[in-house]
């Protein structure tokens, strides 16, 4: 039996990683614009649930892809098969039934990844077909170097069944976390909100409320963001694990911020609204601060006290840019 | 007639991102320790022209071959200039402020925007491509057909007076390989 689902198209935002790119590929299959869906939400929430996964998203363990798209009828569910055979049977059945899925995979076993036979890491990619006769699986992975096509089932299985061990003295951030043949089922509702000026205004209002509403969560909203940055940069001085934590958490926050800037630019074009263009540029500037802070944090270990000072400086710059964007957002949401 | 002065960055080099084949050691342009294949880039210490502007392509110094931006104050040959040109690349695109220091002690600021070096990632800020290698190095191998970029940035010098130094941003995601300051009388007359 051979199955090749279509359309499967390349999609990537340059500040995103495998979580958003895989979600974008799957949403595209369902006829949805990834920027309209993945770019709507902008907020901050970190419940301390960091995991050593390239596709980690704070606070969205149950419905990972739903966490990316809270304004849309999008849900996802992790499946945790007992072993590799069951893992392949389940994925094959879903794809044979017409639904592409996402699978966790260790790049060490994927022939097209630069980490092949070198570094273990916990990655995510889309599966859109298979060929029983040739023993191949069709996968889509827009993360550079982008790949879409067949790989041997044996390599695919090894990647999914990997223990993802630390192999070298310091394999950064996403190792030592078994892959476990996990795969992600996506549920896309039949009814999705239309991308209209009113809907964008509603989204802006909700995002703003998310940043400003009082919360019992320590690390939620604008005040929680400030607390998180202060706490994690303080901990970096004595706890090297805090560097990894901050780097992993900041990755999806950077991606979401960049995507929201793209969303606002798209809305500005679509509705000929200059305020949305300008707001998009302010949010993009926040993304650029996130990019700087993430590297400042990651290099703290080698830069010592100067590195921590740099991280504090970057955090202050980011919060100032953030407040400028939120102020403009309040105007645009009216 | 455009007049330019090459700026010596060698004493500020603090990162090693241009890696000859078959070498190991303290290389690592980004936090993942990827590097550019040095054999695909201009000879160390040579003068190269990018989009009409000459640059001193870095030769390896004690600290490396590029400057990871941490607020370094870079002295430039004193003079009246219109533009600061850079060869740079960032770990994810980013933007920041540089501080311009003049001979009379006054300062000004200007924005520096720098695109990502990562393969298959276009420029974000309209920068001309300076160099793109065909492969990218990893700590234990070189990955072919995986092409990282170095871009050319331009920062305006809008204040009057003699420029004597530039303070780079405290933004360690930004890397600078070369700086050239340029006086462009035609542009000056236009303003």
UniProtKB/TrEMBL annotation, chain A:
It holds the Pfam family BtrH_N. This is BtrH N-terminal domain-containing protein. It comes from Actinoplanes sandaracinus. Residues 17-142 form the Butirosin biosynthesis protein H N-terminal domain.
């Amino acid at each position: 039996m051979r199955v090749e689902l279509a359309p499967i198209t390349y999609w990537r935002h340059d500040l995103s990683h495998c979580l958003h790119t895989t979600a974008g590929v799957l949403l595209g299959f369902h006829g949805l614009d990834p920027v309209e869906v993945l770019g709507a939400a902008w907020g901050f929430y970190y419940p301390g649930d960091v995991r050593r996964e390239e596709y980690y998203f704070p606070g969205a363990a149950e419905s990972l892809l739903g966490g990316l798209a809270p304004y849309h009828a999008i849900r996802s569910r992790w499946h945790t098969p007992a072993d590799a055979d069951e893992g392949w049977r389940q994925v094959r059945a879903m794809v044979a039934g017409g639904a592409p899925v996402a699978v966790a995979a260790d790049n060490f076993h994927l022939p097209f990844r630069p980490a092949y036979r070198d570094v273990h890491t916990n990655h995510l990619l889309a599966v859109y077909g298979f060929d029983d006769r040739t023993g191949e699986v069709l996968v889509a992975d827009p993360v550079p170097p982008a790949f879409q096509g067949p790989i041997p089932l044996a390599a695919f299985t090894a990647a999914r069944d990997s223990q993802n061990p630390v192999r070298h003295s310091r394999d950064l951030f996403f190792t030592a976390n078994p892959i476990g043949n996990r795969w992600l089922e996506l549920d896309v509702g039949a009814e999705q909100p239309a991308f209209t000026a009113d809907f964008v205004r509603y989204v802006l209002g909700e995002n703003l409320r998310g940043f400003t509403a009082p919360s019992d969560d320590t690390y939620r909203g604008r005040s929680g963001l400030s607390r998180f940055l202060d706490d994690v940069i303080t901990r970096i001085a004595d706890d090297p694990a805090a560097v990894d934590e901050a780097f992993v958490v900041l990755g999806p926050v950077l991606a979401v911020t960049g995507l929201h800037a793209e969303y606002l630019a798209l809305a500005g074009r679509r509705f000929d609204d200059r305020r949305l263009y300008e707001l998009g540029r302010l949010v993009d500037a926040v993304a650029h601060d996130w990019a700087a802070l993430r590297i400042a944090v990651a290099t703290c270990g080698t830069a010592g006290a100067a590195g921590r000072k740099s991280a504090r400086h970057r955090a202050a710059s980011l919060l100032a840019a953030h407040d400028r964007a939120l102020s403009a957002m309040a105007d645009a949401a009216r | 007639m455009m007049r330019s002065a090459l700026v010596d960055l060698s004493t500020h080099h603090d990162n090693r991102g241009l890696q000859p084949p078959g070498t190991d050691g303290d290389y690592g342009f980004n936090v993942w320790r990827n590097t550019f294949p040095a054999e695909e880039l201009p000879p160390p210490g040579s003068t190269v022209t990018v989009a009409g502007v000459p640059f001193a392509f870095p030769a390896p110094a004690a600290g490396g071959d590029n400057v990871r931006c941490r607020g370094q104050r870079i002295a430039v040959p004193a003079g009246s200039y219109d533009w600061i040109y850079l060869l740079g690349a960032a770990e994810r695109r980013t933007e920041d402020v540089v501080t311009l220091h003049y001979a009379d002690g006054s300062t000004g600021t200007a924005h520096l925007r720098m695109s990502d070096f990562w393969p298959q990632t276009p420029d974000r800020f309209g920068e001309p491509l300076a160099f793109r290698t065909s492969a990218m190095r990893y700590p234990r191998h070189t990955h072919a057909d995986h092409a990282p970029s170095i871009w050319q940035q331009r920062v305006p010098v809008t204040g009057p007076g003699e420029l004597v130094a530039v303070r780079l941003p405290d933004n360690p995601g930004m890397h600078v390989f070369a700086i050239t300051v340029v006086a462009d009388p035609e542009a000056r007359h236009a303003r």
